[in-house]
Amino acid sequence: MFGRPVRRGPARLRRRTTTLIAVGALTSGLLLSVPQPASAANLVKNPGFETAGTGGDGMPYCWEKSGWGDNDFTFSTVGGAHTGSKAMKVELTRRTEGDRKALITESAECAPVVSVGKQYDLGLWYKSTTPDTSLTLFRHDTTAGWQYWTDLKTLPISANWSEATVRTPEVPAGTDRISWGVSVYGTGSATTDDYTMDQVADPIPDPVCTGTAEQCANGRWDVLPTQNPVRSMHSVVLNNGKVLLIAGSGNSEEMFEAGTFTSAVYNPVTGTYKQIPTPKDMFCAGHVQLDDGRVLVMSGNKGYPSADGTVGYQGYKDSYTFDPVTETYSKTNDMNDGHWYPSATILGNGDVLSFGGLKEDSTGSVTAERWSDAENKWLPLWQVNQTWSYWGLYPTMVLMQDGRLFYTGSHTFGNNIPGTGSAIYDYDANTTTQVPGLQRKDERDQSASVLLPPAQDQKVLTIGGGNIDSNPDANRLTDVIDLKSANPAYVAGPPLPQGTVDLGNGKVPQTGAQGKMYVSAVLLPDGKVLETGGALHNRANPVYESSLYDPATNTFDPVAADPEARGYHSSAFLLPDGRVMATGDNPGNGTWNHNVSVYTPPYLLKGPRPSITSVIDNEWTYGDTQRITVDRPIARAELIRPAAVTHSSDPNQRFVDLPLSVDGNNVDLNVTSNPNLAPPGWYMLFAVDANGVPSVAKWVHLQGPTALAAASGEAASGHVHSFADSLEGKVVAPGKKRAAAKVSPTVAGCDRHYGSANVCVPTVFPKTVKKTTAARCAWLKSNDYGPLKINGKDDLLRLDRNGDGVACGKGDGKR
Fold it and tell me: CA 463 from chain center: how many Å?
């Protein structure tokens, strides 16, 4: 996997322990004996290294050594300074992994004091012989202590003294001091001098409400006048701002038998749809945007379950790409296995990994698949690492900053995988390590998981869920994990807000522990997460509730709810204009909601929006500085990867912070050097003002690892940190090779003895429904099921008491 060495387990951990350097606070009371060249407003002590330290390690006053990994290095105070007589040189002469840093000492005496919510302009002068240098920032949390914050800027090679400036993000809550300096993570050296730090003046215009007071507080939903013409359960935002809506057979056995497979492209600007010839039943396929903007669509539905339920769904091996320019599908080579409900995660080199799903014979696929970006094909089985594990259906696999995958515990249908329910998978080492803490891991069916803004923070939120096998009330659980921890574990988050639920006789307030499954979670350009839609039970009882989750405060704020039911097969996703579009609902009675809703968040009702008036170049490379112009001051800018969502799952959704260097209306954006934080492809670029109001997005193309070639002819690597390196969970190595995993044909939670394949009579009714024919038939009627044909001779749910072959017909509901 790109940019990541194979991990060797405990031996590597011992090596890290011996190579980590962290020098404590220096003796207090020292005075600066030499005048400093920096300005009087400068918050950095000893910014030119002119005052010697007393720690015995040769470091200047208020500066310390830090770093990790297997490398040979030197720290030295040298002459030839930018000003004065001294500069600091950090050099790596051999490197296998890790970095070395010269940082402001993490002490109350030396580390600059900061104010929550403020931003600071940082500057330094430097010379460098390696492209692998980064300005790295740490913060002191008043509760948790010192911790990594973010990488702000990659410093290009420079033989002569060059100035580098960058603006911090807003200081998070609980932070009182920061430390920063330059990391060197490749062979070569960086020499620095004359550090500066100044607080940014923050004239914030008062927001002007442009709607009603209710709308300005909670946003507004509008149901569009034109319905979605297809039963789309897959939504992919294309790099031209249009939306690909894939239905395939649309969960309709009649359409499948007729060979009627559909897709449409929606244009948000004109509000129009164009139906697209669709070559195969892509119902419940996997999908992801490739480096070049095409959409890779993998597997789909080869066949519906048999009428008696003895044969389940089947997945085919076929794979296609969709071209946004020609709006056509093209066939690729086949996958090695069938995968109905597969995962799809793009890697830092543009490859795609896929796991799980059902094979052509309805068994569970244990075959891992890898799409090669370089070869534009699925690799043969022998070229792909295999654990022979069954990951289930639509397992949410999030790419971590070091190239490993985090299985969040969100999945589709039934119980979770064995173990703790979440895990870290190391493709290179081909090992899986269990991660603890996920609450009620077997009731997270069609929960939603997102890598929280910004991606650099490496935190994941998991929301809600249920279980179609046992069919309890869906839950209000949320869990948050910090993958920057040495041994990360989920911790309980705040409970989901409750809304109203339609139990068949109108909407009533939710009570007790009632939450929702079929959750949609959407990253917004103001750094919050919109969670919306859902239902209380297996394909029944829609929940009307939406809220905004704020990662900075770990809180939910209830907002306006979508007026449309959005349960099974619904999707919600961000549009380039900052609104959120929601489609679909496919309850158990087989119907489909063709109405489309659009949410206008409160940030679009706060007055004029900032505008990106120019983007100098829309072809970006890792470690770049890219200039844009804006019409008024902005507080942040970010890249948001466009949605490719189905069944509450969009593992590639991410928000990547772009630290700013500001010169009036000219803003230089500093692009991460790490492709694992922002995998190659097309992104929406938003500029956001101090009130959280975003611009309309511009599209930029972030290129793959070949773009990292340095002037020296050597390829640069992303700055990878030593996060999640002390995992204590159970480690599972590859198991014995096998062909498949056994999976019940009732995996979808439907009893096929009743009705058609389109109709889902639950194998288990909600606990509030008595186990009598009358109660069950009453529940089915309240959820708009009509009379149901009995398939075969079995009536396991006792719905045909008079034996006329029709469930819940005349005379059946009296007992």
Answer: 13
Taking the alpha carbons of 214, 536, 580, 116 in that order, is the dihedral positive or negative? Answer: positive
242 in Cβ contact with 265 (< 8 Å): yes
Are 347 and 368 within 8 A, CB to CB? no
Burial call 531-558: b when 16+ CB within 10 Å, e when fewer: bbbbbbbbbbbbbbbbbbbbbeebebee
Burial class (CB in 10 A: 0-12, 13-18, 19+), 580: buried
pLDDT exceeds cutoff 80 at 326: yes
State yes or no: pLDDT of 705 exceeds 80. no
pLDDT at 529 over 60: yes
Chain Cα centroid distance, residue 693: 22
Classify residue 526 as exposed, middle or buried by CB count within 10 Å of its CB (0-12, 13-18, 19+): buried
**pLDDT tens-digit readout, 530-568:** 999 999 999 999 999 999 999 999 999 999 999 999 999
Cα–Cα distance measured from residue 648 to residue 369, given in angstroms and rounded to the nearest whole number: 22
Cβ atoms within 10 A of the Cβ of 736, count?
Answer: 5
* Closest among 716, 707, 720, 717 to 621, alpha carbons compared: 707
Task: Walk me through the domains of the chain, giving residue ranges and CATH numbers.
Answer: 63-199 (2.60.120.260), 213-604 (2.130.10.80), 612-712 (2.60.40.10), 749-814 (no CATH)
Asked whether the bond before 454 is cis by omega within 30 degrees of 0, the reply is yes
